[in-house]
Design brief:
Blueprint: E1 9-12, E2 18-19, E3 26-27, E4 39-42, E5 57-58, E6 66-68, H1 70-75, H2 85-96, E7 101-106, E8 111-113, E9 118-119, E10 131-135, E11 152-154, H3 155-166, E12 175-180, H4 187-190, H5 201-218, E13 223-229, H6 232-237, H7 251-266, E14 273-278, E15 283-284, E16 287-288, H8 297-305, H9 320-325, H10 331-342, E17 347-353, H11 361-376, E18 381-384, H12 392-402, E19 414-420, E20 430-432
Parallel strand pairs: 3-4, 3-18, 4-7, 7-12, 10-11, 12-13, 13-14, 14-17, 17-18
Antiparallel strand pairs: 1-19, 2-19, 5-6, 6-9, 8-10, 15-16, 19-20
Length: 439
């Protein structure tokens, strides 16, 4: 048996006071537990090829490159052929659960599924009849229902429909943000029939600028989330983008600076929230904490230590990142330094993450730790992405912060100083309830 530990804690409610964004308590689907999750995200690979006019989408390499009606099946649409039905169903369902903020993913890669006829063969790679051209900004008046007979699908026309149906993003019953597609660093791998070429740095910046302008022209207060990196190597090199500027050793810096310069030229902010995903590479006894089940005690311990890569300078991550690129960790301070240097005022969002073992105490403890970290470090928005069918321990982690007593008891909205003598075995987070978080 392990010897008992002696740990001391010190909490000072008047020190290190930082507002905790309620939007960090979010999920990548609508969960039918009323009021537990404040935010939700409609995202993932399916939305890169989503055609709002007929609700067709393409699975890419996830499932036989199939164009079909999966999104409306998954979201239980009332009318699978109604333009925008998938997004409307998501927003309506989240409103029923007392949700406050929904992040909607908009396609940006260049084409969307034209039909629901199944597998798109390699010889049908875009441009072909299996795809419709994606246009960010329509040059003629918006109509609803949209014209299904032309060769284009207009993103701003879809945003206009949401504004007409629900009101502006900041004033709707469920506030909205707009994510500029999903993991563009991987388009060549996840959607080779839609975007077969490597995403370039210049391409991503130009597309981000153009789509953000189109969105803001229709819904000026809608917050733009981008670039939705899939993970570390996307943030480092945009997955080995061939035109990665040599003067930057961190693509994040280039992207932030370019979006700041283009925003200044446009006279309005074109990036509100820097958006990234994090699926830890940490290993325990030679095995990655993700993809290997619950694992033995060694792997479980590594899983519970893994959140330290987000914030703890004294922690050395056991992974290829920790070995070769440890200077870029811990991640949250690194990203916040980049924001402060290259585009001050940009907020930070973690819109996909999981630490595995989602129905085991080690996975639940890891997520509970992450939620404390996100609040302490001022992250604006975060949504967990379940990788397993059963995630009861993850749900329990959220209840600690959102409903610990079954009667709506919650963690406070203002982080305060909390220090532990043993960060490895007993991290601590503390808060107070203060409605006036500006003090």
């Amino acid at each position: 048996a392990q010897d008992a530990l002696t740990v001391s804690f010190a909490v000072e409610v008047g020190a290190a006071r930082t507002p905790i964004s309620p939007l960090i308590y979010g999920f990548n689907r609508v969960i039918e537990e009323r009021g537990l999750f404040v935010s939700a995200r409609l995202g993932g690979n399916r939305w890169t090829g989503y055609n709002w006019e007929n609700n067709a989408s393409n699975a890419g390499s996830d499932w036989n490159h199939s164009s079909d009606d999966f999104v409306c099946w998954f979201l239980s649409c009332d009318n699978w052929n109604k333009p925008g039905a998938a997004i409307e169903n998501f927003l309506d369902s989240f409103a029923e659960q007392n949700g406050e903020y929904a992040l909607v993913t908009l396609p940006m890669a260049g084409y969307v599924a034209a039909d629901k006829n199944g597998t798109v063969e390699q010889n049908q790679t875009a441009p072909s009849s299996r795809w419709k051209r994606l246009v960010y900004q329509k040059s003629s008046p918006f109509v609803y229902p949209p014209d299904l007979s032309d060769a284009n699908v207009y993103v701003d026309e879809m945003v206009a429909h949401l504004v007409h149906t629900y009101g502006g993003a900041s004033s709707a019953a469920v506030r909205r943000g707009y994510s500029l597609d999903n993991e563009p660093d991987l388009w060549m791998y996840t959607h080779p029939r839609l975007h077969p070429d490597q995403t370039t740095a210049q391409e991503l910046v130009e597309k981000s600028e153009a789509l953000a302008k189109a969105i803001k022209a229709v819904d000026p207060q809608g917050e733009i989330f981008a670039p939705v990196h899939y993970g570390f190597w996307g943030m480092k090199t945009l997955q080995n983008a061939p035109d990665m500027p040599a003067i930057y050793d961190w693509f994040v810096d280039f992207y932030l600076e370019q979006m700041r310069l283009r925003s200044e030229q446009a006279g309005r902010r074109l990036l509100d929230v820097f958006d990234f995903h994090w699926y830890p590479e940490n290993q325990g006894c030679g095995m990655r904490i993700l993809g290997n089940g619950v694992g033995d005690p060694c792997l479980q311990r590594a899983r519970m230590q893994a959140p330290r890569s987000l914030w703890d300078e004294s922690y050395t991550e056991v992974s290829w990142i920790g070995r070769w690129f440890g200077d870029y960790l811990p991640l949250l301070p690194r990203l916040q330094d980049s924001i402060q240097t290259y585009y001050p005022g940009t907020r930070l969002a973690l819109t996909e993450f999981s630490y595995g073992a989602e129905n085991h105490i080690s996975g639940g403890i890891a997520v509970a730790d992450v939620l404390g970290i996100l609040g302490k470090y001022g992250v604006y928005f975060a949504t967990f992405y379940p990788l397993e069918e059963n995630f009861d321990y993850v749900m329990a982690a959220y209840r600690i912060y959102r409903n610990f007593d079954g009667n709506g008891g919650s963690f406070g909205n203002l982080s305060v100083q909390a220090v532990t003598s043993d960060v490895e075995n007993a991290p601590i987070y503390a808060s107070i309830h203060d409605l006036d978080v500006s003090r």
